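Hello,

Our lab assistant flagged a job as stuck in the queue for most of the afternoon. It eventually completed. Since we weren't sure the result was trustworthy after the delay, we are filing this so someone can double-check. Below is the sequence as submitted and the structure that was eventually returned. Let us know if re-running is recommended.
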Amino acid sequence: MREHRHAEDASHPDVWTGRATNRVQWLLALVGAACMALGVELAVDSAWTSGIAPLVMSVVGCIAAGLLVLFGTLAFVHVDLKLDNECVEVRCGHIGVPRRRIPLSQVAGADFSPHVTPRQWGGWGYRWRPEKGTAVVVRRGEAIVLRLWDGHTFTITVDNAESAVRVIRARLRAGTPGSTH
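-- returned structure --
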């Protein structure tokens, strides 16, 4: 993560960037890769005499489960947050998908949450809970909670979240189009 100026500084960077990483997800990705390797091993070195159908089902099952676990976990190894003068953009994983772009004109306010856990949201990843809103949770710790004009919230776990909240609040006070601050 890059260093950012403190809130006491009247000027804020044009683009604020932040990131959060979860190294535990790499272990789960290895499990997915192992399942895929098992599927390939079964396909190459099969000496099964019980027929082709069980072999095909085993190979396809192992490879499919491995791909699902591998790509499902790699998508949430880290989250990148970019805040510019127009929007908040959240990108997950190495490919940047899922991605969400929220114009500041849709943001009513921003709050700092010092302790968010995957357990509060039902696990890691891109989450939705009717009573809480939407979240991108890649690790436990500090987070930004965006309050949107439509009454929903969007929570993002990111390092130095308090700094991001200060920048968002300053931009909303500065008269971002659509805000009443």
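-- support follow-up --
The delay was a queue issue, not a problem with the job. The result is valid. Residues 1-10 have pLDDT under 50 and may be disordered. The radius of gyration is 21 Å.
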